[in-house]
Design goal:
Blueprint (H helix, E strand, L loop, with lengths): L1 E5 L8 H14 L4 E5 L5 H8 L8 E4 L15 E5 L6 H8 L4 E6 L3 H15 L2 H4 L5 E8 L4 H11 L5 E6 L3 H7 L10 H18 L3
Parallel strand pairs: 1-4, 1-5, 2-3, 2-4, 5-6, 6-7
Helix pairs in contact: 1-2
Length: 210
C-alpha cells in the first residue's frame, strides 16, 4: 500500500481538490483506493459519496472518528489522507504514522508562501520528517503561468527546501468536476488530458514508493 498525506496550514490551498484527483487517478488505474477525510467539513468524504456508478469507486472514510484505520480494507492499494486547514504540527505528526509521503500544495501569493514556509519549517522538525522517514513534496497550485505573480511565486516555492514535483494551472474544471464526484482522470477529452499531464509528474514521483 502507498499512503499519502496531503496537508497545509493554509485554507484554500487546494488540498481536497488534489486529494480527489489523485484518488480518481488511482481508481481509474485499477487500484483499490481509499480517501480518508480528517476535516470535519467532510468535502473529500462527500466527493466519494457523489461518485457516479459509471466511474471506478473510491472508498470514503471518516477520518474524524477514532480508530478510523481499523475500517481500512486489507486489500487497499492506495490510501490518501486529506486534512483540514489550520492543522497543527502535533496533528500532522499523529497522521504521519499512517503516511509514506507528505504532499503540500502551495499557492503563489505572498500570504500563502509565508504560511507555507512557516508550516514546512515546523513540519521539518517532526521526527519522522527530520529523519527522512517521510519525504515531503510540494505542488504549486492554481498557477497562472502567464502572470508575473505566478512566475515569481514559482521561484519562491522552489526555494522552500523540498522538491517541487508538479505545477497545476488555475482552472474552474476542478471545481466543476468535484461537484460531480469526478476528477480529470475520469475523462478522455483533450482538456482533461492537459490537466492529467500537469499531475503526471506527481504520480510518477509517488510511484517511487510503490
Amino acid at each position: 500500500m502507498v499512503r499519502l498525506l496531503i496537508a497545509s496550514s493554509k485554507g484554500g490551498s487546494g488540498k481536497s481538490t488534489l486529494a480527489a484527483n489523485l484518488a480518481a487517478a488511482f481508481a481509474v488505474a485499477g487500484k483499490n483506493t481509499a480517501l480518508v477525510d480528517t476535516d470535519p467539513q467532510g468535502s473529500s468524504l462527500h466527493w466519494c459519496q457523489r461518485r457516479p456508478d459509471l466511474v471506478p469507486g473510491v472508498l470514503g472514510i471518516d477520518g474524524t472518528r477514532r480508530h478510523w484505520d481499523r475500517g481500512l480494507p486489507p486489500d487497499t492499494q492506495r490510501l490518501i489522507i486529506d486534512t483540514p486547514a489550520g492543522i497543527r504540527p502535533a496533528e500532522v505528526e499523529a497522521l504521519l504514522e499512517h503516511a509514506d509521503v507528505l504532499i503540500v500544495p502551495v499557492l503563489p501569493s505572498a500570504f500563502d508562501l509565508e504560511a507555507a514556509a512557516a508550516f514546512l519549517a515546523a513540519v521539518g522538525e517532526l521526527p519522522r520528517v527530520r529523519r527522512g522517514k517521510v519525504p515531503v513534496a510540494l505542488v504549486a497550485n492554481r498557477m497562472k503561468p502567464w502572470t508575473r505573480l505566478s512566475q515569481e511565486g514559482l521561484e519562491r516555492i522552489r526555494a522552500l527546501g523540498h522538491p517541487l514535483v508538479a505545477e497545476l494551472r488555475d482552472s474552474s474544471a476542478y471545481a466543476v468536476l468535484a461537484g460531480l464526484g469526478k476528477g480529470v482522470f475520469d475523462y478522455e477529452s483533450e482538456q482533461a488530458r492537459s490537466h492529467q499531464d500537469s499531475l503526471a509528474p506527481l504520480l510518477k514521483w509517488i510511484k517511487k514508493f510503490a
